[in-house]
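Mods, move this if it's the wrong board.
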Amino acid sequence: MRAVQYDQFGSAPSIVDLPDPVAPDHGVVVRVAATGVCRSDWHAWKGHDDSVALPHVPGHEFAGVVTSVGDAVTRVSVGDRVTAPFVFACGTCPECVDGATQVCTRQQQPGFTLPGSHAESVVIPHADVNVVALPDAVGFAEAAALGCRFGTAYHALHARGRVAAGEWVVVFGCGGVGLSTIIVAVAAGAQVVAVDVSSAALERAAALGAVTVPMDRAAVAAVRTQTDGGAHVSIDAFGSRATSVAAVASLRPRGRHAGRPVARRRGRPGDPDGPRHRG
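Not the wrong board. Structure tokens:
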């Protein structure tokens, strides 16, 4: 198969021919129909992630069609249209058994610990746990574009923030994760305040339905005024000390907060309570 590969960190990637992957007993092979490019791929390419071994095939946001199925797989068939999360869980560790697959202690990651989706085919291990079926109404490009940032935003708001219709959500940082969070919050019926230092980012946030506030010394007061006493849920989608402190300070009593780690060894911010965060 053809794949994008780099042999040294920071070097120009090239198109190479690699052996076709083989499905493990518990896994499947997916022929990639669409794949995304994430800032985390840049971090891996720059050598910021010590889980990446050279030579390396990047990519962790993808969708496609199953072409091969391992003997132990029970719920996935050849021809299925699928995608997968950016954390491949084992399905058997205590965290997985408890339903917290995003913090699997034996997790693997396409494009980081495993060859990624910037190739004609990619392997999904433990397919019965990790494969997500795509409805016919969702195209491959749309599914790949959802990628890790929408999964991150959805989990932050619904699993951690427990957002409800009519509540106020404040989002600090309007990059990919922040804008995705605004979309998910608006879809949930929440009211959103977006905070950023960039006027262009705030314009994008406003176009998605958020009230905007510039990130300055008056930001917390402005948010608390706009939300009549503080947000019900705050999301730090940037991950600095300043945004973390401001996000928590913007909450009303009994508010809920989720955020990116302020200090992280790895380059990718994912699920807010995961041990490895990439976004």
